[in-house]
Fold V-type proton ATPase subunit a.
Amino acid sequence: MGDGSSGPTMDLLRSEPMQLVQLIIPIESAFRTISYLGDLGLFQFNDLNAEKSPFQRTYAAQIKRCAEMARKLRFFKEQMRKAGLSPSTKSLRSGDIDLDYLEVTLGELESELIEINSNNEMLQHTYNELSEYKLVLQKAGELFHSAQSIVAAQQSELELYNTTEQSVERSLLLEQEITMDPSKQVNLGYISGLVAREKSMAFERILFRATRGNVFLKQSVLENAVVDPVLGDEVEKNVFVVFYSGERAKNKILKLCEGFGANRYPFTEDLNKQFEIISQERYFSIDASERKKKVSGRLAELKTTIDVGLAHRSNLLQTIGFEFEHWNFLVKKEKSIYHILNMLNMDVTKKCLVAEGWCPVFAKDQIQNGLRRATLDSNSQIGAIFHVLQTKESPPTFFQTNKFTSAFQEIIDAYGVAKYQEVNPSVYTIVTFPFLFAIMFGDWGHGICLLLATLYLIIREKKLSSQKLGDIMEMAFSGRYVIMMMGIFSIYTGLIYNEFFSVPFELFGPSAYGCRDQSCRDAYTAGLVKVHDTYPFGLDPKWHGSRSELPFLNSMKMKMSILFGVAQMNLGIIMSYFNAKFFGDNINIWYQFVPQMIFLNSLFGYLSLLIIVKWCTGSQADLYHVMIYMFLSPTDDLDDNQLFIGQKFFQILLLLSALAAVPWMLFPRPFLLKKQHEERFQGQSYARLDGNDYPPEIEPHSVSHNHEEFEFSEVFVHQLIHTIEFVLGAVSNTASYLRLWALSLAHSELSSVFYDKVLLLAWGYNSIIARGIGLSVFIFATVGVLLVMETLSAFLHALRLHWVEFQNKFYVGDGYKFYPFSFASLGQDDE
């Protein structure tokens, strides 16, 4: 495949030359060897143990160990996220930490953090319960206090009434009531607690139904939400007190509290003091105040303890965060090395590992230096062996890209990865993609807005690349250089169209046209007259707003679209020639490239020639008539539609050439491929006598198998489909390029409508508010419709023109990417 060279070719047109390599590595230096190759990032390993499950491989235990450490690191990251901390963004250290020491450290930190979290949760649960208990004491106290106030008022009335003449009789009755048999008295109990406010109505309704109305419920609304001890979330709650009579009612109330998630707190359990609670104010006030003091003191102690625990937890997480990225990278690196080691084969002596993989030819010396360094650093007595293998397997495709070209390469790879050594369309896409976009988006005001937005992303790319962006922002950031080129080309085409937010300017000199008189009354009837030299660059500003603006721009942009479309399709067919020449495929050159060029240019190349001739000569010939009657009546005279001498004979010649190109594409290629295959089969059947690498008992079977694989009918049908697709596609693809004209016209008209019907209309009012509203609507419409929706629309149409109209002429795209083993990508990948 070639010898190692000092550096890459950096040829974006074709893939870097690749080679299949076998490495024989002693076991004692295997780990360092893989590590150094990961640092180099230029070797793609093949899995030689694909038939084995992950648990049957040699280093499954080490990978499980790394996975456990990665789990602990994910736990630390989640804890830091909950605490509002982020890992340190400082650069990773160069020195490695012993994995055993790291494993012990992570285990100790995890145990300590789990213990801190457990203690904190327990303390927080107790604190939340006491907080709720304090609120119950406060609100229930208010309820009892109001009841006691009513009782006191009633007692005052009773004392006043006892001074009357029935005082003796009522005193006897009261004494009789008090000295009544205690067994006949009604013993009331009550349950207090908190229930969620959203459940309070249902709680009250079901409580009434379950006890058949034999309870008395009193609720008090809490002004602020409280932290629920069970859920740990802030919940709006009500304090309730339920009075009941009997154990049966009590059990029902307890079950309902449990079902509704109501937290119960004791107020008093002494039934003998219920009467005192209602009648004696001093008991409650003393008891409640003492309880409040005790609860408040306990809350202050818990708050101090919790704060100390949280401070210790925060310090521990900050310590972890400072080392987190370094530890995370080391664990990922270790795991990836063992994953690669599991892809290697153990030789029969159990002393060496055998690796196979792809690497660029230029990386041969760098890989060999890495192997030698690994041997020296591991004190191995035997060095690793680097052996280039010969293979017929298609190598992976590898393009050396940078931050500017990578986005354009991603556009191509989204269609399909280039076959090995196939022409890479991204070389031309760097120019053609933003240019076709700009044809549809031609406005140098809008182009400046795009350019400024992308310059902001480019200037701050170092900072933004280290941040997590949203999906849309991430796409815009990754394609910032594509958008920058789109903005630059839009400024260029906007200057040609002479449009700045649809407003023309005389940037390159005065207009070539003027009015016939100072009043300009006949400007839209008799037209303008030429008073200066032709406008030096782009469209003359006088065209804008004239009655012939739309017909003129339509004609110009439509013909311009056809010219650019035919030119790009010709470029695609020419690329197929370079592909065929590179691979030595003369059949494709003579029976695919040549007839395709003849067919396309006999029809649409000729149409492009007529457009240019008409522009240069100023002829009034009808090109529609010329192209239609070129097929319907090729022998008729052209009369006024003749653009040059000999045009009739030339058209007949082109028509016959186009008709001859169709069977030229269809018939010879399948027969020549069949003949070529038979000659190759005969050559291979006699090649063994000259000494071949394949064993004699294997080769005849493989050769006959290859011979049987050639199906002439399949090849012929495929060629028929390809021929029909190209012939019909030549028409449809050319028509498809008219989208350049349609979108350019739509963009120009939308911009003109927003300017004339929004901004100028608002500016006609002598009101600052009306002008402000008009300017706001104009800005939002311009940004939302023209700079966002129109940009996306033009981008997608330009993408389609490249994928379908351009790349289907030469691009196969059935290759696979070169994915080297590299530690540089570990920081971007999540577990």
Remarks:
- Residues 1-5, 170-174, 269-286, 685-707 have pLDDT under 50 and may be disordered.
- The radius of gyration is 44 Å.
- The first strand starts at residue 18 and ends at 26.
